[in-house]
Amino acid sequence: LWQGADSARGDNTSKLKALVAEWVNRDLKPEFPLDSDDKHTHGFSNNACGRLLCPAELDWNNPAQVVLLEFREKCSLFTRGCIMTDLSFPAYLYNNYTANPDDLEEGLFKSKILLQGYKAVFTSPSSAKDVEGDGDGADVIQNNRRAKKSFNRVGKVKKHVAQIINMRKVTSRSIAYIACLLRFSLSSVTSWRSIDGDCHIPYIHASLPDFGPLDPVWSDA
C-alpha cells in the first residue's frame, strides 16, 4: 500500500511540477519566470512563489513584517522571530491569494490554483483549463457539469483518477492532499520529504480537514 501511495504521489508531483510553473507564470507574471525543470527558481527567492507561500496573516509586500533570509539552497521565512511552520496557512489557499487578518477562515480553500491543482490530479490537466476567475472561488459545480456533459458526448475515453477510485464527491482529505502537493510545487525543495525545513507535511495534511464541513463551492465536484 505504501509503495502504491508513493508511486501515485510521485506521478502527481511530476504532473503538477510543470503545470504550477505554467499557471504562476501566466497569472502572476513574475519578474523571473518559474522554470519547471529548476526548483531553485521557486520558493521564497521568487517573488510570485513567496507571495503564495507566505503565511496568510502576513503581507508579503510589507518589508517591516516579512524578512527573507537565504541560506544556499534553503530559504526560511522569519517573521518577527517566529518561523513559518505547518500551522501557518499559506496565501495560495485563499480567494485572490489574500486573507482577512481578522477572519482567517474567510476565503479559505477558494483559490484558483487550488482548484486547478485538484482538477488536474483527480480529473485531468485539460479540465483544469476550464477553471475561470482570478483566484476568486471559481464555480466548481458548473465546471464539473460541463466536464460530465463533454464526457458523455465523447463516449468511451480513458478514465480519470476520480472514476478509477470511484470518487463521487470532494473530501476535505483530498483537498488537504492537493494543498500539500501545491506547497511542494511552489517551494524550492528538490525532492519530496515529510519534514520540509520547519514544516511537517503530515501535520499540514492532518490539520486542514479540521475546519469543518466543506464550503458549497466544493460541493458536487
TrEMBL record:
This is Uncharacterized protein. InterPro entries: DUF6698. It comes from the Eukaryota.
